[in-house]
Amino acid sequence: MTLADLAPGETAKLDKIDTRDPGVIRLMVLGMVEDITVRMENVAIGGDPLEIGFFGSSISLRKEQARHFKVSRINSSPSK
Amino acid sequence: MIESTEVKIPISGIGIRHKARASIALIGNPNTGKSTLFNRLTGLRQTTANFPGVTVEKHEGTVELGNSALNLVDLPGIYSLDGTSVDERIAVDVILGRVPGTQRPSGLLVVIDATHIYQGLYMMEQLLELQLPTMVALTMIDAATANGIKIDIEGLQKALGGIPVYPVSSISGHGLDELKEGLEHVTEVETPAIPASWPELSETAQQLSQQLGSDWQRIDIIQALLQSHPGFEGKLSDQLGHETVDGLRSRLFGDDPPVAVEARRRYQWVKTVIEDVQVQAPLYEKLGARLVRWTNQPWPATLLFFAVLLLVFQAVFTWATPMMDLIDSAGSELGQWLVATLGTNAFSSFLADGVIAGVGSVIIFLPQILILFLFIIILEDTGYLARTSFLMDRVMRTVGLSGQSVIPMLSSFACAVPSIMATRVIPDRRDRIATILAAPFMTCSARLPIYALLIAAFVPNESVGWMNLQGLVLFALYLLGIIGGLGTALMLKSSALKGPKPHFMLALPEFRIPNLQTVAIKLFDRGRIFLKRAGTVIFVVAILVWTLAYFPRMEVEPTVSIEPGSTLQVQQGLQNARSAAQMEQSWLGRIGRTIEPVFKPLGWDWRVSSAVVAGFPAREVVVAVMGTIYAVGAEADDHSLSEKLRAAKWPDGRPIFTLPMVLGMLVFYAWCLQCAATLATIRRETNGWRWPIFAWVYMTSIGYSGAFIIYQVGSMF
Fold first, then answer.
1. Is the CB of B505 less than 8 angstroms away from the CB of A23?
2. Same domain membership, residue B481 and residue B408
3. What is the pTM of this model?
4. ipTM value of the model?
5. DSSP string of B119-141?
């Protein structure tokens, strides 16, 4: 599954990142690299863009870029 | 004339005063409280200028230390040295000493936000490659404590190879004295020879820089290897040969993009450091935090967004009125006093009708502008403006832009000039230019007076449901501006500026209470820029219009004998008739009649046409020009001016201001680009005349066409 498939409130570990998209590299510079834990904070009305939280930061990105991040979910039940 | 509208404050002389002092660059991630720290350290001893050649603002200030002082340069926030936006490039070029005319700093004060040390440490590791004396100010330390974050300062210093770290709170002032003491010795700080996060890269670059000689600093080689600086990349291949460089690259980066590998390597190290030095206590969420979290949810946030917009517009219109009335009456009284003291002659008319009426007609908007900017600054400093980008991204996507264009477009409601500068955060040049061309369509505060005048005169003050008809028309005009702007963006993005779909990525800051001093300083800056404009370009235009309207004088001055007992109205009527006759044969009147045919298809007579032409350099002057032209004397207070407008007739007796003509004129003002300062800003931001000329021709044509269609179609009925 990819980052785009997480529901709001779910956390996941970033497994593999497809670095061919230049937008993805800019996200990596902001700290979205392999092995960190991220949380889907919010999804805008209409399902896009997404807000991802990690290490106290919130980054907003579009689904298109989120699909380049393979993740594994950490807790399956979305917390409130 | 256009050059004089530049909103920069000269810094000549400052360099000489501070020449002996060490110059320290203040650098950090965006939203780390960097500017607040800058204000705290320098107080009001600061200047604002532009970096040579670009409009990125350069804030410089003096920090008074015990026995010495140093020069602090505040730079735009960056996340890394590989940034692509204009702001980031400038910050990086300044600290690397690549900006001509700006001396390379002799040390760095790096601002790291204690609640975001993850990204802070990444940038820090890159900065250590510069081998400059460096010191860290760990800001937001009280916010970190409130969030249950504890940081082991000594451990952090050790991880950074002995770089001094000073925890500070810019809000309470804790730790500032210690930081200042440390700053006295900043240039003596020893930076680690090899930063800990990626020793292979640092060592490779260090060896090469020794091999290649003094022209090559380590950071130049790193940027060449990372391919993050096009200039150095080619130069390094020329020096070492392509094969050697390719070999180095494949050893360091494998097959992955170098910058991605750098992020991976350095963040891996940052993660281990954070595990060592930071303790995050589990924390129950406080009420305030929960409230903020709730308002970040998509639906509440959208509702809140419209509520905030409504509040801002309401405030701009109602709060400013008392102040505006005060300025208005002060101006007219000053004018009357001048005429009374100096007598009725060319000089008193020049001062009262030219300078005071002209410049005053613009200064009257200062309260509105300050209120608008106050809101925008508060929204910015609480982090809310960045949130709106997240909310509006979806809408902007339909016109081919991203949420990053939202902030510039929203601030265009105040003034297009700062908003065009705010587009610098947009990384893609095509998206940036599309946003720059859309921004002048938004209803800026200078359009308000002409809207207010025409609406008050020609739209009935009736209620439609629970809304007021005049308010509705005004709202429709704002909408018209938005439609024009978004339509332009859509058109450009699907033709001349067609490109890949924009990425949208933005760090969303959390809610913060704005710092009062920072807000005050920013507001003061904006007010000063506005007044400076009023004092330069508008001053010149006012004098020009007055000269054209005042000369040549009528050959026979009809002597108005004021009979004892004649009422004030009679006297004023006579005065007004005389000014009207004078106006007709003045240069302005002659010019007006020459250009009348151009605007006749829109239903405008020579008076309206010349007011419009006079308004091209700055639309603010239109009301003042109309006031003079319609012979109500210099104090064109709206009420009597609107009566004059209603009474204005063509030679054959038909009224000039019919509903189709007024609606057409409003459309013309909504879309026409009548602002030299905007054009000058577009020229500087796009580095050429191509886009400003396009913007002017395009906006003027669609404004004219809109007015033409409305008048012609409307007049059929």
1. yes
2. yes
3. 0.79
4. 0.94
5. HHHHHHHHHHTT---EEEEEE-H
